[in-house]
Amino acid sequence: MNEVYVIARSVARRGRESQLGELLRGMLAPTRAESGCKLYELYESDAKGRFYFYEIWESQAALEKHAASPHFKHLEQTVGEFVQEPFEVNILEKKLIAAA
Q: Whole-structure pTM over 0.85, yes or no?
């Protein structure tokens, strides 16, 4: 199994920064409890209202299971009123750089 690395970004609508932050913080505990979740962290940028999830999943199947979870479905259904633009989700490929 190959680990899957994700960085997801969301940008709050003006005046909705705290509501979006609260909604996203609510994802931490249930997601971290999921089988296959190796890391799930939430960051807020110094640019107000920009939030980033950094995630590591043990496999693509674990990530897909997360996307089908009740708490993720709740996020999808409620986040629209708080965000300025759709979530940006980036699946990353780890690159190893050889020492010179």
A: yes
